[in-house]
Structure prediction request, 231 residues.
Amino acid sequence: AQSVTQLGSHVSVSEGALVLLRCNYSSSVPPYLFWYVQYPNQGLQLLLKYTTGATLVKGINGFEAEFKKSETSFHLTKPSAHMSDAAEYFCAVSYSGGSNYKLTFGKGTLLTVNP
Amino acid sequence: DSGVTQTPKHLITATGQRVTLRCSPRSGDLSVYWYQQSLDQGLQFLIHYYNGEERAKGNILERFSAQQFPDLHSELNLSSLELGDSALYFCASSVEVHARPYNEQFFGPGTRLTVL
Prediction:
C-alpha cells in the first residue's frame, strides 16, 4: 500500500529565505511523485512531478524537488520565498500498476511567508 | 483555470438529505476522479471513472455513489447526509492516453458541502 508522510504541518519562513517542505513516501512498486499547491478557496494546482529519468525535477514558480530512492524522499525546495508562495502544499504518490491511477496525498504543509 | 468545472460551488443542506455534485472534465479527458478533503481525514480518493466505466473505489461510503455520463461529465451523489460529510469535494480529470499513470490530474475548484 502507498502512503505519504509530510513532516511538519506548518512551516514558517521569512521572505527571501529558503523553503524546504519534506515528503517521504512508502510504495512497494516504483512510485510517481507529485507536489500540488492549494491557495485559499481554490483547487489544487500541480507544481511538479517525478515519473522516470532525472531525479531533480523543476516545476513552476521556481520550485524544484529531488527524488531520492534510498531515502524514499521527495522534498520540495525553493531558494528564495516570496509572499505569494503562502499556501498549502501537498505531496502525492501514484504508481505504475493496475488501471487506477489515484493519487494518495499527504496531510499537507501550510507554508507561511513572513515579510 | 484548470478547465475542470464543478457545480455548485457551495451547498448547505440538512442531515438526512441527498445532494448531487456535478463535474465537467477538461475537453478530451476521459478520466474523472473524485476526492474528499476534510480537516480530520485530509484529501482522500473516493472513486475513479474512465470513459463511463467505474475503475476503482477508494474510501467511499455506501451512501455515496457516482456515475459518468456519455458526454463524460460526472455526478457524485451523497445521500442520508451526516454532519461528518461536511467537506470539500474535488473532481479531477486526466487524459490517460495509453493508460499512462503519470498524466497530470487537473483539479476543479471544488464544491464545499456543509451539512447542518
Remarks:
- Chain B has a mean pLDDT of 92.
- The interface with chain A takes residues 2, 4, 31, 33, 35, 42-45, 48, 50, 55-56, 58, 90, 92, 94, 96, 99, 101-110 of chain B (CB under 8 Å).
- The radius of gyration of chain B is 13 Å.
- The longest strand of chain B covers residues 42-50.
